[in-house]
Amino acid sequence: MNPISAGASADAEKPAGHPTAAPRTDPADRPMSPVGTPQARVEGPAKVTGSVRYAADEPMENLAFGHVVTSTVSRGRIAGIDVSAAEGMPGVRGVIDHRNAPRLNPEAGSFFGPDGGMHLLQNDEIPCSGRPIALVVAETIEQARAAAAALRVTYEEAPHDTGFSLDHPAGRPAVSFFGEDATIGDVDAELAASPVVVDERYHTPQQHGAAMEPHSATAWWEDGRLQILDSTQGPFLTAMTVATLFSLDPQQVRVRAAHVGGGFGSKSAGCGPQLVLAAMATTVLGRPVRVTLTRKQVFQAVSPRPATDQRIRIGAGTDGRLRALDHAAAFEVSKLAEYLENCTELSNTLYAAPAIRTRRTAVPLDILPPYSVRGPGATPGSFALESAMDEVAERLGMDPLELRLRNEPTVGPVSGLPFSNRNLVPCLREGARRFGWATRDHRPRRRREGRLLVGTGLAATSFSAGALPSSASVTAETDGTFTVAVGATDIGTGARTALTAVAAEALHTGPERIRLVIADSDLGPAWSAGGSRGTTSWSWAITEAAAELRSQLRGAALPLTVTADTTASLGKLPPMERHAYSAVFCETTVDPATGEVRVRRLLGMFAVGRVVNPLLARSQVIGGMITGLSMALHEEGSRDPVTGRHVNADFAGYHIAAHADIPDIEADFVQDYEPGDPSGIKGVGEIGTVGTAAAIANAVWHATGTRRRSLPIRLDRVLEEHPPR
Question: How many whole angstroms separate alpha carbon 263 and alpha carbon 256?
Answer without folding.
Answer: 15
